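User: structure tokens for this one?
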Amino acid sequence: MRLFAGLIVFLLSLAPTVSASEIVVKSGEHADFTRIVVTLPKASTSWSFLPKGANYVLKVNEPDPTFEISTVFDRIPRSRLTSLNPGSSPESLEFELGCECEAIAKKYDGRFIVIDIKSIEKTEKERLRLTAPLSLATANSSLRLLNQLQAAKQSQKDTLAADSLKQEVLSITPHLNTDRNQSLSQTALVEKIAKAASRGELQIALTTSSDTAPAVTLIERPKVKPSVAVEASSLTQIRVTNDAIQNGFSQDLQTLMPGEAIVCLDATLVDFSTWETDTSFGQGIGNARRALFDEFDRPNIDAAKLLTKLYLHFSFGAEAHRLLQSLPSSRETDVLMDLARIMDGQSPRNQNLFENQSGCSGAAILWSLLSNSNQQLNDNDYQAVLLSVSAMPLHMRTYLGPKVANRLLDLGEIETAAQLLSLSSRGSEMPSTEHKLGEASILIAREEVKEAEEIIDEILETENEINPEVLATKMEILENQKSRPDIETLDLASAFATEHRNTPQAMKTKETQIHAYLLAGDFEKAFLTIDESRSEQDPSFRDKFLSKAFVSLSENGDRLDFLALATRYEVTSEPLTKDALKRLASRFIDEGFSSEALKILGAFSLHYVDDEIRLLRAKAALIERKPYLAAAELLSVEGEEANKLRALAFSATGNHGEAEILYEDLGDRGSATKEAWQAKNWASLENSTGTGFQAAVALAAQEPEQPQQGRATILEQSRSLLQQSALARELLGQVRASIGTTGEEVSGRELDPL
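Assistant:
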């Protein structure tokens, strides 16, 4: 019994496993036909494709097949093929056509059925459409004969196309792509091309080598009258010829003078006014997306470029950038990539593409401006930019116009920016927030700050979605007016920074928040926000704003805030700007912390040595009671400030005569008189005016009389000295009154230079 049961199990294990076969159906749209590709489970599977009224039925002889058709209509419209429906039997699939079409099925490489659906001519509509069943197992002799007659009518072009398609199938199926099959296919293709060429059946099209793909036409122009068509054709031909001459001349210059030539950007790549389409946004994007991949899942490069231009035309920079990352690199894709980055608010990867565009087309100069290029432009260039913006469609003018106007403001072209902003809003019922912000920026450049503030306040009060640039401009206005933001503005700046922390505008909103804290005098929060700011996109963000914060703290912070925050950081190890370090050192000197100032000044002395640094060093040395060091720092420094410090150094070293001369040159008569007294320069003091000066000088200049022994008693000598002392005190009081000093001021503190 056990032996019998084991035999049954063994026989069952030998029985073939019957499971459902998945048949994948894919699609691709072409100019004059729609292609459907069906992948059979195995090469030996028999099949048939027969007409059924106006439709067709595909039958695959497999047990319980499953047709995977979920992605068919993602890539094709429902113009030729309306739908795919289950047939009368589980192994059949019905093709419902939506046009006067015929469908031709071919088998390739054993496993692929390629079905092409084409529109038929009017003369062929009435003929009976019979398509032979191409099944190797079920086709009868008469149908085979019809099939052979149909195959005999195929041209040499169809044969070459079939071999090319077979080679493409091999390239996308790695399990079939053996070296031997590929080599045989390539050899056969080369032989057939050679035979066709020898018979004169091939016409070779001569093309020039270029890495730039031909421009893709987005729409078909409507039919017009012959005269109008001739005129439009002539203008188009002139434009294309001019572009070709310009680009060819640029390439010749680049070849003859590499590194020095002016290479203009191709106008077909940067002039958005030529990319206009009559289709709606959804229809245009949908059609282009469906054409991205063909029926064999291969990317369509031309369709991808077309979709990229559509994205750029509708100002979707991020989407265009993402799509271009999947395309092979060429000059065309590199330019489009940088256009997408600029449109998305980023810097171009290759800035050199946008340099030296002066004298080129207006569109090229416009994108050069938006790339933050520092090239020099002339009046003709600015006029070309105005014409280029004027020719743009409305949505592009309103989007790019304010951005270009801001760049013109950065270059100091205030009136040109105003003209461009006016052009960009032409045809718009209501100006956008960006347009109002541009108007405010122009008013600020014209120093009409009050009017600019009114525009900004109106935006903040009326707009539901506020551009972060609006709040940044508000901070700029407050800084110009030396005003502090109110609590509502501070809260709004903080809310913006939190809301946009994970967006491309994160750094801009964070900058506005820090600026608001600094203007409000809340330095503790400003420095805390700076320390929390870390950005992979801009690692220098913290360093830049740390310097800005230290400048603001040095100028506006009170004594306790300054000392607490400035000593918290090891400023000598921070990459601070030259201006920030000098402001810090100067404030430390003002607060009497000369050692901290000298530490800061010494840390970067090897890199940033100038007269201002030497003056700060001299001040710190004088506080440290090192007048000789101060005098040494001032050896090569000229100017009024240097002479004041030099006079203090001379006075501290006892060289009162030199100090007197310097004070005389500076016009400081009071300090010069003091130094003259210290130097006992009676000749200089004789010319001084004022009560008691002459008598005081005469008294001070007298040589003390030696008492004559034996001729006067000690009492008489004492009486004489007392009289002279009283006279001296009287004269000294008169001198003090004349030079404006008091008893408290005459002290050793006067020797302290600061």
